[in-house]
């Protein structure tokens, strides 16, 4: 949910973003958020459920979270290869890295 | 427009996508598209204008096109450094690459 919020949070309204932030980042309960935002527990619950739906719909169409996780893996792998390269440079490894970058980034 | 369509095309309706594709990729005129899709030239014009607005609004909020262009540059720079590395491996270059990757991907 945190990755989805990073990717699509800007597409939510300020109110939706605020409630999702209080729930997922500040770890408040539905009741505490209701009190904090001057609304009902049920309304907070409905907003969170609606946000889930919105975020998953965007992910289904744009796959940003999936791409982000893939890029993180690419980054990790490049850095790992560069660590190897630092100690024993060789042509094969460099060529593998190149292919990997071309195929993945 | 092509980068924006790549990034956010899936958020348009099939009809919108089709018209944008005919206009930008198949290079048809408004009149030709109107004939092809059994509608009026004005309707085609309005749809294209509306799509522009939608695509730019998404870009304003998600910056996918901007990120994509940045990643292309990162990729180009990594590949250029690897070319150098292939001929004369040295520690400084490898460390520069690492910093570059960590800061940019």
Automatic annotation (TrEMBL), chains A, B:
Function, in words: Might take part in the signal recognition particle (SRP) pathway. This is inferred from the conservation of its genetic proximity to ftsY/ffh. May be a regulatory protein.
Gene3D superfamilies: Winged helix-like DNA-binding domain superfamily/Winged helix DNA-binding domain
InterPro entries: RNA_pol_sigma_r3/r4-like, UPF0122, UPF0122_fam_protein, WH-like_DNA-bd_sf
Protein name in UniProt: UPF0122 protein CTDIVETGP_0213
Family annotation (HAMAP family): UPF0122
Domain of life from the UniProt record: Bacteria
Organism: Clostridium tyrobutyricum DIVETGP
Family: Belongs to the UPF0122 family.
One protein family per Pfam: UPF0122
